[in-house]
Amino acid sequence: MAMAEDTRDILSGINSPEDLKKLNENELIQLAEELRQFIIDAVCKNPGHVGANLGAIEITLALHYVFKAPEDKIVWDVAIRPMPTKLLPAAETVFIPTELTTG
Questions:
Q1: Closest Cα partner for 78 from 46, 100, 56?
Q2: Where are the domains of the chain?
Q3: Spatial distance between the Cα atoms of 55 and 94, rounded to a whole number of angstroms
Q4: If you classify domain 7-96 with CATH, what class do you get?
Q5: Per-residue pLDDT tens for 45-55?
Q6: Full DSSP string of the chain
Q7: Less Cβ around it within 10 Å: N or C end of the chain?
């Protein structure tokens, strides 16, 4: 079931990792849910890897909350895991499924 657009108010306001640092614990939990639903909605339209991306949401938020990206480098060991990181800044405009860009 798709999430209603008006409930994505936190995700749409994230333009940089610094924006995460302004969120309280409840807002971070809501952001994780919004990211999860965004990924599920996107994979329903464009099949791709979902499990690893859903499992990486909380660690992605924690890393960006604690560290100062992009000065502090965050390296992922598997190409399919960083989708939550790619979604954080301007999620609706930057998401392009890997399967569509690599053939």
A1: 56
A2: 7-96
A3: 20
A4: alpha beta
A5: 887 777 777 88
A6: -PPPGGG-TTGGG--SHHHHTT--HHHHHHHHHHHHHHHHHHHHHS----HHHHHTHHHHHHHHHHS-TTTS----SSTTTTHHHHHSTTHHHH---HHHHH-
A7: C
